[in-house]
């Protein structure tokens, strides 16, 4: 029996995980991964917490992900509490891939959860930051094209958060941001965007399930920039799936991991060239 690799997506509040990484969650599940949403608070400052948890559960069912809760106080999450919850969940699940809020964010809970995850997961090799409505100066190093059926399923899952759809207009945000991140290469589609903190190359070399048809493109890698704590592609790199959206388990999709491998190989090639000419 094939053991599923696990992707852990961490959000401070109900609906954060689907906003930032709902599309890639769908793609990972279709590629044979087990995806877990870890929602750190019950979202009581944004509505009735019982309702918000119920909405998050329905959202998770729609996507096909598992959801767990930290039950920390909304608006008053502390680093000590967050790290404790995160370390417990990381030990329990041992995820191969982790997604979390980008650290530059106007919401205090988002910033604390992001920094706490970086501390709790300091020994984990693959972490990506995702974008949200309150992200500040988000400069993605990669984007993932969402085919129409993936985009529609993400929209359907987000609509489960009915208490938030009019209060913060989240469905409008994912449409507007998705189209902005898709421009100019995928003008008729939407994308999700990410910034990698670090990535284990070995994760890309051992796929969970066989791939019947896999096609991806990296249209441009203009230059590489070395940050303080991470290696980033300074220009957006596009991953395009070159077939219709899958409708059965036979059509496993691993273009996300293939794209990450392309990014890594591009970095190694460019850095090697730099060392030779330096």
Topology:
Layout: E1 6-11, H1 16-30, E2 34-41, H2 49-63, E3 66-72, H3 79-93, E4 97-101, H4 108-120, E5 127-130, E6 142-146, H5 148-158, H6 162-165, H7 170-182, E7 190-198, H8 202-205, E8 224-226, E9 231-233, E10 238-239, H9 255-277
Parallel strand pairs: 1-2, 1-4, 2-3, 4-5, 6-10
Antiparallel strand pairs: 5-7, 6-7, 8-9
Q: Could you walk me through the main structural features you see in this protein, from its secondary elements to its overall organization?
A:
- This protein has 278 residues and is α/β, with parallel strands linked by helices.
- The chain has a single domain, classed as LmbE-like (Rossmann fold).
- It contains nine helices and ten strands.
- The chain has an eight-stranded mixed sheet, sandwiched between helices. Strands 8-9 form a two-stranded antiparallel ribbon.
- Helix 1 crosses helix 5 (148-158) and helix 2 packs antiparallel against helix 5 (148-158).
- Residues 209-244 and 246-254 have low confidence and may be disordered.
- The chain crosses the membrane at residues 253-274.
Summarize the entry for a quick read.
With 278 residues, the chain is α/β, with parallel strands linked by helices. Helices cover 41% and strands 19% of the residues.
List the keywords.
278 residues, alpha/beta, Rossmann fold, eight-stranded mixed β-sheet, two-stranded antiparallel sheet, 9 helices, globular
CATH topology: Rossmann fold
Q: Identify the CATH architecture.
A: 3-Layer(aba) Sandwich
Termini gap: 50 Å
CATH class assignment: Alpha Beta
Number of strands: 10
Name the CATH superfamily classification: LmbE-like
Strand content: 15-25%
**Nearest-angstrom radius of gyration?**
18 Å
Task: Report the total helices.
Answer: 9
What pattern of helices and strands is seen along the backbone? EHEHEHEHEEHHHEHEEEH
Share in helix: 40-55%
Spatial sequence of strands, sheet with the most strands: 3-2-1-4-5-7-6-10
Q: Calculate the mean pLDDT score and round it.
A: 80
Instruction: Provide the domain count.
Output: 1
Largest sheet: 8 strands, mixed
Q: Regions with pLDDT < 50 over 5+ consecutive residues? A: 209-244, 246-254
Q: Structural class of the secondary structure composition?
A: alpha/beta
What form results from the Cα inertia axes? globular
Transmembrane segments: 253-274
EC number: 3.5.1.89
Keywords: Membrane, Transmembrane, Transmembrane helix
Enzyme class: hydrolase
């Amino acid at each position: 029996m094939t053991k599923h690799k696990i992707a852990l997506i961490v959000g401070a509040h109900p609906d954060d995980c689907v906003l930032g990484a709902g599309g890639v969650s769908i793609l990972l599940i279709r590629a044979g991964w087990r995806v877990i949403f870890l929602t750190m608070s019950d979202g009581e400052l944004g509505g009735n917490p019982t309702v918000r948890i119920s909405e998050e559960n329905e959202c998770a069912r729609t996507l096909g992900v598992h959801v767990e809760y930290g039950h920390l106080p909304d608006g008053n999450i502390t680093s000590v509490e967050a790290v404790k919850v995160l370390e417990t969940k990381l030990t329990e699940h041992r995820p191969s891939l982790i997604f979390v809020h980008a650290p530059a964010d106007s919401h205090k809970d988002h910033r604390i959860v992001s920094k706490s995850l970086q501390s709790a997961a300091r020994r984990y090799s693959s972490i990506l930051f995702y974008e949200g409505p309150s992200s500040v100066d988000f400069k993605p190093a990669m984007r993932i094209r969402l085919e129409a059926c993936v985009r529609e399923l993400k929209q359907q899952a987000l609509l489960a958060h009915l208490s938030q759809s009019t209060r913060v207009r989240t469905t409008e945000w994912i449409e507007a941001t998705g189209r902005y991140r898709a421009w100019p290469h995928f003008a008729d589609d939407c994308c999700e965007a990410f910034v990698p903190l670090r990535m284990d190359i070995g994760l890309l070399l051992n796929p969970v399930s066989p791939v019947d048809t896999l096609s991806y493109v990296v249209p441009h890698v203009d230059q590489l920039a070395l940050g303080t704590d991470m290696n980033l592609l300074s220009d957006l790199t596009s991953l395009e799936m070159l077939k219709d959206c899958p409708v059965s388990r036979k059509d496993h999709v691993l273009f996300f991991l293939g794209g990450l491998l392309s990014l890594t190989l591009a970095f190694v090639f460019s850095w090697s060239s730099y060392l030779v000419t330096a």
